[in-house]
Amino acid sequence: MRGLDSRLSLCASFVRQGARLADVGTDHAYLPVWLCREGVCPQAVAADVNPEPLSRGQLTVDEAGLSEKITTRLSDGLSGIRGDEVDDIVIAGMGGELISKIIGGCAFAKDPEKRWILQPMTKSELLIEWLCENGFEILRQDCCVAADKCYTVILAAYTGETRTRSELYPYLGELCPRTNETHRRFVNAHIERLRKQSKGDARFAALADGLLEATGE
Length: 217
Ligand SMILES: C[S@@+](CC[C@H](N)C(=O)[O-])C[C@H]1O[C@@H](n2cnc3c(N)ncnc32)[C@H](O)[C@@H]1O
Description:
Elements: H1 6-13, E1 21-24, H2 30-37, E2 44-48, H3 51-64, E3 70-74, E4 88-94, H4 96-104, E5 115-120, H5 124-133, E6 136-146, E7 149-158, H6 169-172, H7 181-197, H8 202-215
Parallel strand pairs: 1-2, 1-4, 2-3, 4-5
Antiparallel strand pairs: 5-7, 6-7
Helix pairs in contact: 1-2, 4-5, 7-8
C-alpha cells in the first residue's frame, strides 16, 4: 500500500493513540491499514455501504497482513457497528450533509467518549451548523492541501451543549485564517462561493464581507 496523502494524513493525525477505529466509507481502507500498521490503533472496522469498494479495502488489508486487526464490514453508515467496539470514528471523503446524516442515524452518537474525525468534501458549513445544533463541540480543526485542493478536517465530540454561535462560525469553525495560510485559503474558497451566490442576496454578501474581515485581508 502506498503512503497516505496529506488529506488522509491529517485525518490520521486526529486519531487518538490506542483508539479502536471505525472508518466509515473506507473504500481502499488505506486509513485503517496505515493506523494499525503504525501502531496507533490496535484494531479497526473498515466499513462501506457498497460491496465493490469494500472488496478493494479487503484486498489492501490482506496485502498488509492485517486481517486479524482489521475487519471489513458492509454497513450503511454506522448501522452495522456497535458502540462498544469503537472509540474514534472517521468519516472522510463524503459531502457534509451525508456525514451529518450518518452521525444523526448512529445509535451511540451521544456517547461523549467517542471522537468524530470528519472530512467533508463539500458543504462543510452545513456539517458544522448541524454539529452545533445537535450538541457537538468542535475540539480541533485544521486544513491541508492535496492535489492543489484545500480540505478541512474536524475533530468533534458530543457534549450535549448547544451554544449560540455567530453567523460566521459555520464557515470559520475553529480555523485561524489570520495566522495560518492554509486556513486562509480554505476560508477564501468560502468567500468566493458566497460572492457567486450573493448576486441579489444581501445576506450572502454580508457573510462574505464578514469572512474577509476575519482573514485580516
Ligand atoms: C470518495 S470515497 C472516500 C474514501 C475514503 N474515506 C477517503 O476519504 O479517501 C466515499 C466512500 O463512501 C462510501 N459511502 C457512501 N455512503 C456511505 C454510507 N452511507 N455508509 C458507508 N459508506 C458510504 C462509498 O461507497 C465510497 O466508498
